[in-house]
């Protein structure tokens, strides 16, 4: 990994002081971050297995990227709002969304089942980069409400090549919107390496928009926490947007439909496994005396229970009624949707579905 | 103990089958939940599948190297019923899972018992309503006990008196006016034939055609062709009367360029006429695959020799079936040689988007009045159809007369 990144925790788990980004986290919060990474990882492993046994149509593995996700989500205040792609399992873990809810989309049960206003996280966005615009729109709304909230906008290296992200950067910068762009540069946009997306580090692009940028070690949960917190605070105080490039790695496939062995070396995956975000946090906390075997065993048991709960829950999920797809298109009744619904109802009535 | 079977799942968004590459367990092995049991290869990836069960492997139901459809049971596991490992799995096979397996698996050998009324697809139901047939009275012959369109047709013909008018109308209504039984040879309409049909209908629907004709003494054209064939600078070049007619078109368009034009209907309901700067001459060719109209672009900038070569080249490619799509798009006016079929003329239909088409007939020795007396002269009939939205009678007639005049007295 390039050495020009902000890092508060070495791969060996040693604390590194950084003059701009002091670590403000007590042992309770550090332990909570450890637990969140373990549980997010368990959700990921179990969901992959559920897809492989035919219970989910698709899953987007997160292995390797949980560090920055958990760190950044811990930097958010309760009223802050996040917009994510479909891979931010770590953030949903931190914000208290039941992992069972994450599976609804991938089983084809519903588009999203959590209340974004309640948890402060939007629904999964499959379209690459479009939610960068939603993020800036929400942030400009905060501005007009005169609130001191801030928005965390998460997307990947591939999304930085889209027009939507460019437009979002322009608006955010020009209007000094209280938004933080957190780019998880996981090196691969499916099979396209980041070197085919940018000649220079992605963070360099921010200068063109007139916004500050920071490159961080995305496998360092503490850097994720400290840098994101500083950027969110700057945003809520009227300082405008910040671009954070978290240099990390997707160790699994892009989705369960992807076969990464076709486009990358095992050696690359092994290298990044040696930089695992959970390992280094555990080493640090053990050295600090913040966790012991009893604690890690308890979290491990909790994770096993989560896996069993996910397996049980997915088999208890009822298939939705076909007409349910018309229910949440608009907040208020809409003539076209009502007509479509009636047509569908007639069609279904004409079938013998027995 | 009970046996649970693991059916091959769709692991890749719409895959239908996978190859069993390698078993990671054998019969008698103890397996735990999520333990890797088998590697499979799909159209998208090689993936390992985890076991959804804990227990003892009692059967590998598919051998390595075999490709099986999604939904095929591949592994059997003896599960100890009181084993608590299977939290959440006890009711697994009661709910949605079983329904999915049934749809993915092979069709049942016997039609399932029909409950709640006869089975038929919505279009068949609609046809039954039209024909006034109660579906409950129809004997189904389709898969899964479905009533098919044919079942209805058979019923409707046995119900009515053979030969009565209602039988005929029912047999026709089922397939929108086409008789259900055709005694003649059936030629499918596709490819070049379909393109020709669509172009002709479009042209006749959109362009009001006017057709004019004139006979011309082509003695000097015939002489010119002979002379050119003997010239050293035309050696190896195929010169025919068609070459001279093409040159006559180019020459005549100088006076009436409106004949080389296209009508455009605009989205706002108005229209425009585009008079082309250059002449792209379409040549109608009867190719083995049907009528094609490749064009020779930019004939207005060609010498007679270049014109002859270009026409030869494109017609040969048309007959060889090696035209590319660009050859058939972008013509501005068309020449068709019906004379090669031994006729004099006709009422040619415009190539869509063009304002005129000229047909040249056979060259036949006829009695011709020359200087007040009868003479025998080679005579050709020219027929011009033009789009009367673009070209009025004066312009069309002038153009046709100019072509005739050139052929009567070609200026080399």
Give the oligomer, counting copies of the same chain as homo and different chains as hetero.
heterodimer
Q: What spatial order of strands do you see in the largest sheet of chain A? A: 1-2-3-7-6
Overall average residue pLDDT of chain A: 94
Helix content of chain B: 25-40%
Mean pLDDT of chain B: 84
Regarding CATH, which class of the largest domain in chain A?
A: Alpha Beta
Gap from first CA to last CA of chain A: 59 Å
- What is the radius of gyration of chain A computed over CA atoms, rounded to a whole number of angstroms? 21 Å
Identify the CATH class of the largest domain in chain B: Alpha Beta
Which two protein chains have the largest interface (Cβ within 8 Å of the partner's Cβ), and how many residues from each?
A: A-B, 33 and 35 residues
What is the fourth-level CATH superfamily of the largest domain in chain B? Chloramphenicol acetyltransferase-like domain
Going by helix content, strand content and strand pairing, the class of chain B is alpha+beta
CATH topology of the largest domain in chain B: Chloramphenicol Acetyltransferase
Specify the biggest β-sheet of chain B: 7 strands, mixed
Q: What proportion of the residues of chain A is helical, as a percent range?
A: 40-55%
Brief characterization of the structure:
Chain A is α/β, with parallel strands linked by helices. Chain A has 13 helices and seven strands.
